[in-house]
UniProtKB/TrEMBL annotation:
Name of the molecule in the record: EAL domain-containing protein
SMART domains per the UniProt record, alphabetical: EAL, GGDEF, PAC, PAS
Domain of life: Bacteria
Boundaries of every PAS domain copy: 47-78, 153-223
Pfam families hit by this protein: EAL, GGDEF, PAS_3, PAS_4
Domain EAL: 453-708
NCBIfam families reported in the protein's UniProt record: GGDEF, sensory_box
InterPro entries, sorted: Biofilm_reg_signaling, EAL_dom, EAL_sf, GGDEF_dom, Nucleotide_cyclase, PAC, PAS, PAS-assoc_C
Domain GGDEF intervals: 308-444
Annotated PAC domain residues: 224-276
Length: 713
């Protein structure tokens, strides 16, 4: 019936309270019947000499009957040897006889054990009971199976930890390493024994220690994630991402920490590259407009505190377009890079050089004790620009016109960064009008230029009522099959002087004056009406309408109402509308902007980031806002066929967007080769003169019809 595995101690031993043999039979049965363990009572059968010959079953409770699969009448009154003759050979009988003789209880585990068709583990306890023995049997099969499973699981976790590519670690209460997986050798160059017994902080970059301490403190009783630089065996530092879970004792003190670290050096490098690209000009490596605005604002604030002058030099190359047109963009780009190096070499270390685009450069001069220093630097730059530049064996001349604006504390208290840039630009324009390769300082004489701008604003105020504005459309092409996937709505102004002006010629005035609100609402309504019509004409084809929203519009409390009105009046499906905003728009979003962005998404309207890569240096907004489309700025596309860095950068943007479920469109496509490269790296859409310029509604409707017809055939 069983095999004795020995032992006289186990924490799981049953400890039934044995009734006194003097109890009556009914009392005894009632007492033992309620016990969960199987209980049997056997009485000794002795010969004339008192030697125990057998043990006769006198009682078994219901739990025993279920365990053995026998009814009481089949067992009671029969002998142990009769029922289980083989057991005497296993020594169990002798154990029971010894218990009767000595009065000392015996406990042991029987495993394996086969009773009632079941195989398992059972813990038996035998007690002397009168001239017999009381046996209790507890089924511990489940417990033993759990112990085996736990041991197996522990082995599996151990194997997993030892073979994982991540560095797995166990830390003690004092944040010292108690165990580290062997992956630390490949990842960080340390042997596991090098770390055990040493504090975590010994290996963390000093600049990261305070931050890691805070995160670790916040993790007590829970989990936390952090990123920090970890010292390698060779003394260099490597970026690691770490997730930890802390165990806390009942008194709240730290019991230990389990964690894992993974190498994120490549990711950090990619983020740094994208961040640099977002705040710097990709061609020259100089600061871009966003960074210039930020640094100029800081410089003006510092100047008001210190009493020193802040100045801007707007440097524009003369006749640069002629070089581009005659010698090509490659030569032009190399010329721009050379000019960037010249300007950078001429300024102080505290100054900032930026490229705004094209052939426009800006120098920010901070903390000038003598405002005349700005003029002296401008003179130097103009003189140096007259020196020839040799590019690919070709000697080129690119003189420069420079405009100067200054903010003197106490004299110009209200000057902001935008004011200073606009005044420098105005002065630079005056220098060009005066004959180029010269300097102009912003002063009252130049305010006429500002007055001209005011006249432009006055004309623009009447443009709507005079029906002078129009919406044109530039197609966005699906690079996979050549179909039109979207159309960007672009403003045009039929000025009273007879000139057709593109948006770039007046949109700044519209935004600065606030006229963009009325103009934008009209343009949205007109574009939605046009889009609804072409959707009805071509119901089988889903062509999105992309409409630009300025920062001022996006910050309006009634923007969602304006959108709803345009959709309701036109009947356009909201899913066919996409609004485009720039990165700078969400640089410091107000609560209204956040509400509007959420409302746009809730209506099923898509949201696109225009000129992606030229604005804010952080990528956190990609996961903070419901972005559907990234439109890669043309500056990354222009040299994508020849510049491997541009190609890798755009490929990285496409890959990042794909992981976030965001579509990508490239702007400024001018050659088939550019389109082929973009298609090869997985870019979904393209927009540029290669496919079409912006078209008035009549020509756009015909273009769309012909495109769809050609694809179908």
């Amino acid at each position: 019936m069983t095999a004795c595995n020995g032992g006289s101690h186990d924490v799981n031993a049953a400890d039934p309270r044995v009734p006194d043999p003097a109890l009556g039979a009914d009392e005894l049965a009632a007492a033992l019947s309620v016990l969960p363990d199987a209980v049997l009572i056997l009485r000794a059968v002795r010969d004339a000499d008192g030697t125990v010959l057998d043990l006769r079953y006198m009682y078994m409770n219901e739990a025993a009957a279920q365990l053995y699969g026998m009814r009481g009448e089949e067992v009671l009154g029969r002998g142990f040897a009769e029922l289980f003759p083989s057991v005497r050979e296993l020594g169990i009988f002798d154990v029971y006889v010894q218990v009767i003789a000595s009065g000392a209880p015996a406990s042991y585990e029987a495993s394996p054990f086969l009773e009632n068709g079941r195989q398992g583990s059972f813990w038996r306890t035998a007690l002397r009971f009168g001239d017999g023995v009381l046996i209790s049997v507890r089924d511990i099969t489940g417990q033993r199976q759990a112990e085996v499973a736990l041991a197996r699981t522990s082995q599996q976790y151990q194997l997993l930890a030892e073979n994982a590519s991540d560095v797995v670690m166990l830390l003690g209460p004092g944040w010292t390493y108690e165990w580290v997986s062997v992956a630390v050798v490949d990842v960080l160059g340390w042997q596991a024994t090098d770390l055990v017994g040493r504090k975590v902080e010994e290996f963390i970059h000093p600049d990261d220690v305070a931050r890691v301490r805070k995160v670790a403190a916040d993790a007590l009783g829970g989990a936390a994630s952090m990123e920090f630089r970890f010292r390698r065996h060779d003394g260099t530092y490597q970026w690691m991402a770490c997730r930890i879970r802390a165990k806390v004792d009942p008194d709240g003190s730290l019991a230990g920490v389990v964690g894992a670290m993974v190498d994120i050096t490549d990711r950090k490098a990619a983020e740094a590259k994208l961040s640099f690209a977002a705040s710097h000009d990709p061609l020259t490596g100089l600061a871009n407009r966003t960074m210039l605005l930020e640094e100029t604002t800081r410089a003006l604030a510092a100047g008001q505190w210190s009493g020193r002058t802040t100045a801007l030099l707007m440097v524009d190359l003369d006749h640069f377009k002629n070089i581009n047109d005659s010698l090509g963009h490659g030569v032009g780009d190399e010329l721009l890079r050379t000019v960037a190096r010249r300007i950078s070499a001429a300024v102080r270390s505290v100054d900032l050089v930026a490229r705004l685009g094209g052939d426009e450069f800006v120098v920010l001069l901070r903390g000038l004790d003598d405002p005349a220093d700005a003029l002296r630097l401008a003179e130097r730059l103009v003189v140096e620009s007259r020196e020839p530049i040799t590019t690919n064996g070709t000697e080129l001349y690119a003189t420069a016109s420079v405009g100067i604006s200054e903010s003197v504390p106490g004299v110009d208290p209200g000057h902001g960064a935008v004011d200073l840039i606009r005044e420098a630009d105005t002065a630079m324009y005056a220098a060009k009008v005066a004959g180029r390769s010269r300097i102009a300082q912003f002063n009252d004489d130049l305010r006429q230029t500002v007055n001209n701008r005011l006249h432009l604003e006055g004309d623009l105020r009447h443009a709507l009522e005079r029906d002078e504005l129009a919406v044109w459309y530039q197609p966005e092409i699906d690079l996979h099959d050549g179909t039109v996937r979207a159309a960007e709505a672009l403003l045009r102004w039929h000025h009273p002087d007879g000139e057709l002006r593109e948006a770039a010629q007046f949109i700044d005035v519209a935004e600065d004056s606030g006229l963009i609100l009325d103009i934008g609402a009209w343009a949205l309504g007109q574009a939605c009406a046009d889009a609804a019509q072409w959707a009805r004409n071509e119901p089988r084809n889903r062509v999105l309408l992309r409409v630009n929203l300025s920062p001022l519009e996006l910050g309006q409390p009634d923007l969602l109402t304006t959108l709803d009105d345009a959709l309701s009046v036109s009947g356009l499906d909201p899913r066919l509308l996409c609004v485009e905003i720039t990165e700078a728009t969400i640089l410091s979003p107000s609560s209204t902007v956040k509400v509007n962005l959420d409302g746009i998404s809730a209506r099923g309207i898509e949201l696109a980031i225009d000129d992606f890569g030229t604005g804010y240096g952080s990528l956190t907004y990609l996961r903070s806002y419901p972005i559907d489309v990234l439109k890669v700025d043309r500056s990354f596309v222009t040299h994508i066929t020849t510049d491997i860095n541009d190609r890798h950068l755009v490929a990285g943007i496409v890959a990042l967007a794909a992981r976030l479920g965001i579509s990508v469109t490239a702007e400024g496509i001018e050659t088939p080769d550019q389109g082929q490269v973009l298609d090869a790296i997985g870019c979904a859409g393209a927009q540029g003169f290669l496919y079409s310029r912006a078209l008035p509604i009549e020509e756009w409707t015909e273009f769309l019809r012909e495109n769809l017809a050609s694809v179908r055939t």
